[in-house]
Amino acid sequence: MITEDIARCRLVNQQIARPTLATPGDVVAWLGAVQAQDYLGALWAVGLRTPGASEATVEQAIADRTIVRTWPMRGTLHFVAPADVRWMLELLTPRVVQGRQGRLRQLGLDAQIIAASAEVVARALAGGRQLTRAELYAALEQAGIVAGNQRGIHILGQLAHQQLICFGPRAGKQPTFTLLDEWVPRAARLPRDEALATLALRYFTSHGPATLQDFMWWAGLSTADARAGLGAAGALLAHTLVGGQAYYFAHEPAALPDAGQAFLLPPFDEFLLGYRDRSAALDPQFTNLVNPGSNGIFNPIVVIDGRVQGTWRRTFKRGAVAMAFSPFRSFSAAQHGALTTAAAGYGAFVGAPVQLG
Known about the structure:
The chain is about 45% helix and about 15% strand. The chain is of the alpha+beta class. The chain has two domains: about 20-185, Arc Repressor Mutant, subunit A (Orthogonal Bundle), CATH 1.10.10.10; about 260-355, no CATH class. A five-stranded mixed β-sheet has the order 9-10-11-12-13. The protein has a three-stranded antiparallel β-sheet with strand order 1-3-2. Strands 4-6-5 form a three-stranded antiparallel β-sheet. Strand 10 and strand 11 form a beta hairpin.
């Protein structure tokens, strides 16, 4: 394997090129977790990997509880499979919680207030109720717990880490919260060593070829835990050296993506955000065009032949979706044709005719 093959293999293993999975739930379970703080972008991240899916299809999977949205790793929202949500939270959130103690102290959120908040939220959501953030904040305020000045979202994050709540389906355009125990049936707990091995195997199967450092960053694990997971899963993985660096994977794809094929990926897609070192897909000189100012915001990306070759944007107006591309270098006529095909796929997903700018 050569450097140029790494990103192309990832396109296949991540189900972006040559997808083989039938449902949104299958896709999320395969990937382990799909970054989902940008809700509409996350719907597309799942949909582009699910042949024939629409935005409504993916939202229905959320309503059907085959996809769960919560904060399982790095303090960041992800979609995860219902069978995975509890063991992932148990394994991955303690480091996040520990890292946030200083901020919680700044906000005056001690263990007593979090416990009182848990009682308020549990009562508000009992019986299968699904409430918006504003409704939960109102319940907290009514109980004498201040939810303003970012306290509310930190309270909800802590309660999600404690496995009390998760997100439910949207109410209009607003996300809702629900009780995890009422939303997702309890599953058997995984011992810590088994959880680490399961996570490592899932990651390197779906995201490989990838390095130990990539896995450690993606999962938010300590070096020791990442090594333990890789070591436990190692018998089921292969590896290759590229530039003196070991890359791990479950198997090489039977076929790479078609030459010249274009993909329009959402912001925060796993193809880029799933790795600490993104240079296999993104030339470092263009990083600021994808992640302006390194401010935590990522633009949607154009991927052709395994490389990020530009960004794209879309605007909905008068029943159509207007799409425009910003190439790092001028696109060829063939690339424009591939982009037209990719744009049509996005239009089909959102159910709107495409207008190319």
